[in-house]
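Exercise: predict the structure of this protein bound to magnesium ion.
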Amino acid sequence: MSDLKDFPLHADFETVLVSESAIRRRVKNLGAEIAAAYGGEEITVVAIINGAILFTADLLREIPNPIRLDCVRVSSYRNETRTRGKPRLLHSLALDLGGRHVLLIDDILDTAKTLTFVVDLIKKHRPASIRTCVLLDKRGRREVEFEADFVGFQIPDKFVVGYGLDFAERYRNLPCIGVLKPSLQNPPEWA
Ligand code: IMP
Ligand code: MG
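Solution:
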């Protein structure tokens, strides 16, 4: 998926999994898919910050529909022990979602605990519809059954950073998505 013109590789990367140009192309197509799915309807987008910030900013510019934007912040269960850790809401919705067409956006679908948690939260507001969109999908890692309606890329079970995704809050600003060198990787609890 990487293009030669996107090299040289960032010094901390072992490999680039999705290049900047591949992201740009796919985001454009995703925007068209989403616009087609909603017809001309207004969409209320809920983005999960911080990870979905870059993806959301680029994607929304590819969707011509009227859009309202809200954000939620969810704590990562990764800092807690695996069995006890549950996503927690740190910053809740500001817009009213009742009767609205809601599109929930996240950077990556992994175990699906986060998206399941936020979808349940949104459903309590009785939206007219709820769909989900993720840039990346690590299907092999599901702990909860979940399929997103719109997926940018299926990726293997590797810890990735860049384009919004972080490792200990670093690398979000990189324009492509890559795998860190093993020497820089700590256990996932650090994420
Ligand atoms: P889930 O709840 O396991 O589906 O995880 C979703 C959240 O975990 C995402 O919003 C990311 O913040 C984080 N996450 C999962 N995999 C990765 C990764 O490979 N790199 C960076 N963050 C990740
Ligand atoms: Mg996240």
